[in-house]
Write a structure and sequence with these properties.
mainly beta; Jelly Rolls
Length: about 170
């Protein structure tokens, strides 16, 4: 099986103002992108996990990147390295979706155990390594392979989308 992938972020803003004898506008656009060919080296990836998931009120789950996630064909994805991760909290959520590095066996996505980000309804978080980076975010089975997702409150369920792109070796 072969995988080619790209990660793109485009931010655009247009400022408009009324000035003497008319109007004026200034457009600012920033586009960031990396493309990953099939493989396991620099600028390459061979695994992808993508899912929409739901957590019960006050629910927590640990996503095990060393084998507990399956691709679209039901094949276990055993990540050795992560090249990109994106998480988006559903717009209709009432509570936040918390993405954290657990104290035990946590993926070193964030600097310290317990660090993370709270995604408000509709908010997204994404990170990707540069195309020249062969290492990415290391996944070490049983010591550095978990990403914890938590529903911030006990009142309602939350849903989120997640995509992880990486390498098997």
């Amino acid at each position: 099986m072969s995988l080619t992938s790209s990660v793109r972020l485009a931010i655009q803003g247009v400022q408009q103002n009324t000035v003497d004898l008319g109007s004026s506008s200034a457009r600012r656009t920033v586009e960031l992108a990396i493309s990953l060919a099939a493989g396991t080296g620099a600028g390459q990836a061979d695994l992808v996990f993508a899912d929409t998931r739901t957590l019960a009120a006050s629910g927590t789950e640990d996503l095990d990147l060393a084998g507990a996630l399956a691709d679209a064909f039901g094949v276990a994805q055993v990540f050795a390295r992560v090249k990109a991760i994106a998480v988006k909290a559903a717009t209709g959520n009432t509570n936040n979706v918390q993405v954290t590095r657990p104290a035990s066996n946590g993926l070193v996505l964030f600097m310290a155990a317990g660090d993370g980000i709270a995604l408000r309804p509709g908010q997204m978080f994404a990170t990707a390594v540069g195309a020249a980076d062969a290492t990415g975010i290391a996944v070490t089975a049983a010591t550095g392979d978990l990403l914890t997702i938590t529903n911030s409150a006990g009142s309602t369920t939350v849903s989120y989308d997640i995509v992880i792109i990486g390498c098997s070796a």
